[in-house]
Amino acid sequence: MAAPLPAPLEPGLEGRILTPALLVDLGAARRNIEAVLRLTAGPARWRPHVKTAKIPEVLALYARAGIRRFKCATAREADVLAGVLEAESTPSGDILLAHHLYGRGLDRLAELTARWPGVSFSTLVESVDQVAELPPGPGVFIDVDLGMGRTGIGIGEGDEIRAIARAAGDRFRGLHAYDGHRHEADLDERARLIHASYDELVSLAGSLRDADLAPSEVITAGTPAFPAALKHVGLATLPGSVHRVSPGTVVYHDLRSVEQLPDLEAEFAATVLTRVASLPGTDRVTCDAGSKSVEGTGPDRIAEVVDHGHLKAISQSEEHTVLMAEGGERPERGALLRLIPGHVCPTVNLATHALLVEDGRLIERVEVAARGHEALA
Fold first, then answer.
1. Which residues are paired to 94 by β-bridges?
2. pLDDT digits (tens, 9 = 90+) for 272-325
3. What is the 3-state secondary structure (H, E, C) of 230-273?
4. In angstroms, rounded to a whole number, what is the distance separating the alpha carbons of residues 190 and 179?
5. Do 282 and 288 touch, CB atoms closer than 8 A?
6. Which pTM was predicted?
7. Distance CA 314, CA 325 (A)
8. Domains (ranges, CATH) in the chain?
């Protein structure tokens, strides 16, 4: 495991906690933010995606680190984040609601713009028709598909992209090009493929500039792609444009990130405390944190157990994770274990509350305020 293990909890604290429980180490999260800022040479080139953070007290760490531009996935995230920026007296807050909005979603965006006048809001579009439907106020980023095939207009559709930019007029902010499909195991091959798509993106930005439609910002790169993205010379030197990366998972780190970015200096800031619920058979341990508490990424990367490397997660159900004891003793029934999630983003979203700790000490119990979706607005 490349990252340092979480600090042990202070004596007596574990016995006070109802399991399963999400623990968030503020010190580790702060150091993870600092590690990314070292790579980006400051906050100017980082627009973090807050879909991972979810907790106001963690969002405040971004603001205190000098970060002013953010990306989010839901209106709830945007609302909570805007409130944090105001509470932190953050000037020039900028939030991209990086989703395609329709119907009531567009009304909600208008409400957020009115509620938080000190924050600049924007959203994504991929067609001229979408521009016409937007409420007054929010800016426009064109969502460009670099080959992921999930959302966005194809990068080769230059005429249509220029038409969207013209339709947006002075609301046109820039290009958004997420490359979440780039997580090849060979880092050199991943970087080569990432840079090839960025060469096309630089060419597209140049064609917009030649048409007097220069994007002021070009956004790329989630967690797996961002180190390579920062090394692309063309993006770093775009005339009249700022290139920003948008990793979010890095604030907490997880097993998937260790696999995808083995050299990243990051710590496991979010863990799940669980108890041994059962000892089935002769070599298995079942804990009380299942898929409703900790999100894995397939059976090979559900979670790892802190300080119990011989316990291997092999399966999950809603309320239980089953561990295989390989070459070591099984813990007793009722024993406490601490799990590092395979995928931390949905793990945090599963929790209603989190326990904030630092150096093993309990700070406070807080709400995971930006979790879930708004059903009615």
1. 69, 120
2. 999 999 999 999 999 999 999 998 776 678 999 999 989 999 999 999 999 999
3. HCCHHHHCCCCCEEEECCCHHHCCCHHHHHHCCCCCCCCCEEEE
4. 11
5. no
6. 0.94
7. 10
8. 14-22+263-367 (2.40.37.20), 47-246 (3.20.20.10)
